[in-house]
Specification:
Elements: E1 2-4, E2 7-9, E3 11-12, E4 26-28, E5 34-36, E6 44-49, H1 56-68, E7 75-81, H2 85-95, E8 100-104, H3 109-114, E9 118-119, E10 131-135, E11 141-146, H4 156-165
Length: 167
């Protein structure tokens, strides 16, 4: 069950499990180009899925992953949110976060259901819950956390451990 400030919310789709192959996706980058999972082929990937970079916890998790995971060899850190690419770029540029790739669900609504993170009710219906999914070089899921309370931070240590232990 996922909650927002203690109140249960409906999440639509099926959240992927460790060991599964990650579903393909197409999202929008800062230049308004469509970017797919295949664009990161051969790299480990951290998918930091957040409701909006315009919230304190989402901004904090983006900063932390920029710092912690960005120096990992052969690893792409993807920040995925419902924000428009312009807003995401303004945030990362103002913060000096140059080690993450921001991707918007603007033309990638299927992503939210395919990854089981679509908030289906509440005033936040239509955007994502908070989750972290780590993929190996062949897009197999090696860590998956759907954060139970959207207002809480993800388990950074678990994600980083999955990255480090996957040789």
């Amino acid at each position: 069950m996922v909650t927002l400030k203690g109140k249960p919310i409906k999440i639509e789709g099926t959240f992927p499990k460790v060991g599964q192959k990650a579903p393909a996706f197409s999202l929008v980058n800062r230049d308004l180009n469509d970017v797919t999972l295949a664009n990161f082929a051969g790299k480990k990937k951290v998918l930091n899925i957040v409701p909006s970079l315009d919230t304190p916890v989402c901004a904090l998790s983006t900063r932390k992953f920029n710092q912690q995971a960005s120096d990992m060899e052969n690893t792409a850190v993807l920040i995925i949110a419902a924000d428009l690419p312009f807003a995401m770029s303004r945030f990362t540029d103002a913060e000096g976060l140059d080690k993450v790739v921001t991707l918007s669900t603007m033309r990638g609504a299927n992503f939210m259901k395919d990854y089981g993170v679509l908030i289906g009710d509440s005033p936040f219906g239509g955007i994502t819950a908070r989750a972290v999914i780590v993929l190996d070089e062949s897009d197999k899921i090696i860590h998956a956390e759907l954060v139970p309370e959207i207002a809480d931070e993800p388990n950074y240590d678990a994600a980083m451990t999955a990255l480090r232990n996957n040789k």
